[in-house]
Amino acid sequence: MSAIAAPQHRSSKTESYVDNKRKEDIRHANIVAARSVANAVRTSLGPKGMDKMISTSSDEVIITNDGATILNKMQVLQPAAKMLVELSKSQDSAAGDGSTTVVVIAGALHEQCLLLLSHGIHPTVVSEPLHKAAVKAVDVLTAMAVPVELSDRDSLVKSASTSLNSKVVSQYSTLLAPLAVDAVLSVVDAPKPDMVDLRDVKIVKKLGGTVDDTELVKGLVFDKKVSHAAGGPTRMENAKIAVIQFQISPPKTDIEQSIVVSDYSQMDRILKEERSYILSMIKKIKATGCNVLLIQKSILRDAVTDLSLHYLAKAKILVIKDVERDEIEFITKTLNCLPIANIEHFRTEKLGYADLVEEFSLGDGKIVKITGIKEMGKTTTVLVRGSNQLVLDEAERSLHDALCVVRCLVAKRFLIAGGGAPEIELSRQLGAWAKVLHGMEGYCVRAFAEALEVIPYTLAENAGLNPIAIVTELRNRHAQGEINAGINVRKGQITNILEENVVQPLLVSTSAITLATECVRMILKIDDIVTVR
């Protein structure tokens, strides 16, 4: 009896077996999914990157090489891969540019982490040094950066050009880059010089012409025509403009009901009442000296009827109807006027003043321009032209990225070299730092340093160069102290990239490394996926 009990007593002292296979499998699946997302956009990195044609379920076709747009349109199902899509969105909102770079760096870090995990290193042990390496990387980048002043327009234009050079519309960068710089600088508010709200720059797209016809308009542009009913004016000098949110049409009952008219005299009375009601409204409007009406789109009933348009035309008032509700704030800020919600509140002090309101024929449609606005708010409008819808949409996306780059420089006034120079310098300095560190930390930091080489490698690969030869040469040049040596994809060789005017804001690089590291650390620590139905 005692002989049988003895083994039981001994086995309780020994360690029980724990199955870690599932945890490893899930971690491996997450990393592989994230890497495949990164590989999907990797070919579109840099000025020689390829474009993607995306066909959506609604038969919409998009041609772009903007990382955020590509990932946004991809239907990703794996939860860890979705995190990379969110990562790209975060970079897009934080810096505006570098949405492809951040995903490619995250993919390379995942690859290095997989290698470390396969050697039996615990995920937590890998995670902590990655954070330290990211903090050190930001310090190294800040030390490399060159300060820039907002008065130095050339530097801002160079930075915006670098962003545009990797886009489909890169051949128009000489036009769009200065335009983006002027647009952002015109909305910088003196009391808050570090803050730029890009909602103050309105982009209006109009089909027809080429991207060369894109222009910056100091004023307002409406992608709609003036109401021509009853022969109203289409041009107005010394305009007094009112933005109204009420309807110039007969009132309706609040509840759904029908009114039965039994004879002609009652019908005449109704029509007469309607006419006098509309006429009294228009008289009140005319009494203030208003000669241009911007009417907000109405959901409940017609904002204007044919009858009211007829009376407005008689009163020589120019009418632009169906103004979208979300445009009202921008319009009132630009015109420096107040929206009027009720006819009883229609007063002269609520009007905006401009030198000219005019309708123009453009392409296959018409637009309305308001120029020479008195005491104009800190806003501006960009009228983007394009020969087809695909070019138009891509021009808008590219211009948005260029605007974001200039916004980054307003927020953090430092420039850094492009062309893979900062990444290879980081790789070199972090590699040297890894030798000083002890134990696992050194291994993990070295892996982080190696992962950063993916950017120059990919730039060379996409430009049709020999990536191994280029990256080796780049390492040598940086080891000799040429910290601004980078890949010149146009010449197919390594040059001082600052002298070639390939520059980008410091915020784009620091944000990409910080966000990519955060994302990788989060995915590393996931050891199970629980599905709740």
UniProtKB/TrEMBL annotation:
<comment type="similarity">
    <text>Belongs to the TCP-1 chaperonin family.</text>
</comment>
<dbReference type="InterPro" id="IPR027409">
    <property type="entry name" value="GroEL-like_apical_dom_sf"/>
</dbReference>
<feature type="region of interest" description="Disordered">
    <location>
        <begin position="1"/>
        <end position="21"/>
    </location>
</feature>
<comment type="function">
    <text>Molecular chaperone; assists the folding of proteins upon ATP hydrolysis. Known to play a role, in vitro, in the folding of actin and tubulin.</text>
</comment>
<keyword id="KW-0963">Cytoplasm</keyword>
<dbReference type="InterPro" id="IPR027413">
    <property type="entry name" value="GROEL-like_equatorial_sf"/>
</dbReference>
<keyword id="KW-0143">Chaperone</keyword>
<dbReference type="InterPro" id="IPR012717">
    <property type="entry name" value="Chap_CCT_delta"/>
</dbReference>
<dbReference type="Pfam" id="PF00118">
    <property type="entry name" value="Cpn60_TCP1"/>
</dbReference>
<dbReference type="InterPro" id="IPR053374">
    <property type="entry name" value="TCP-1_chaperonin"/>
</dbReference>
<dbReference type="InterPro" id="IPR017998">
    <property type="entry name" value="Chaperone_TCP-1"/>
</dbReference>
<dbReference type="GO" id="GO:0005524">
    <property type="term" value="F:ATP binding"/>
</dbReference>
<protein>
    <recommendedName>
        <fullName>T-complex protein 1 subunit delta</fullName>
    </recommendedName>
</protein>
<dbReference type="GO" id="GO:0051082">
    <property type="term" value="F:unfolded protein binding"/>
</dbReference>
<dbReference type="InterPro" id="IPR027410">
    <property type="entry name" value="TCP-1-like_intermed_sf"/>
</dbReference>
<dbReference type="GO" id="GO:0016887">
    <property type="term" value="F:ATP hydrolysis activity"/>
</dbReference>
<dbReference type="InterPro" id="IPR002194">
    <property type="entry name" value="Chaperonin_TCP-1_CS"/>
</dbReference>
<dbReference type="InterPro" id="IPR002423">
    <property type="entry name" value="Cpn60/GroEL/TCP-1"/>
</dbReference>
<dbReference type="GO" id="GO:0005737">
    <property type="term" value="C:cytoplasm"/>
</dbReference>
<dbReference type="GO" id="GO:0140662">
    <property type="term" value="F:ATP-dependent protein folding chaperone"/>
</dbReference>
<dbReference type="InterPro" id="IPR054827">
    <property type="entry name" value="thermosome_alpha"/>
</dbReference>
<keyword id="KW-0547">Nucleotide-binding</keyword>
<keyword id="KW-0067">ATP-binding</keyword>
<feature type="compositionally biased region" description="Basic and acidic residues">
    <location>
        <begin position="12"/>
        <end position="21"/>
    </location>
</feature>
